Amino acid sequence: MSFINKTLKRCYGLVIVTVIIFISSVLIYIFCHSTPERAIREDLFKQGYFIGAFNTKIYKSRYDEQYGQSYSCKQPVIGPDFYSVTKENGLWYINHDGTGGG
Fold it and tell me: In the structure, what pLDDT confidence band is assigned to residue 1 with cuts at 50, 70 and 90?
């Protein structure tokens, strides 16, 4: 009987850890896509600009009729020349069709 109790306690512990990791992942994802700047920083980080993604200044650059508002990175200049972002379901995503240069 004690073996079953130990096994159940391990299973409950594993379920709790899994739920905590899942909720943390969802919250981090929402945080990273809450603004256009954060979405761009996440994309830069995934491209390998680990330090530059947090140090660069991101600003609105131009408005395109087809792709919408564009953003650029300065100080240091990293990544593409400009990013186009779109808002879907309250979160911001990189529009890779409208992003270019670099």
Answer: low
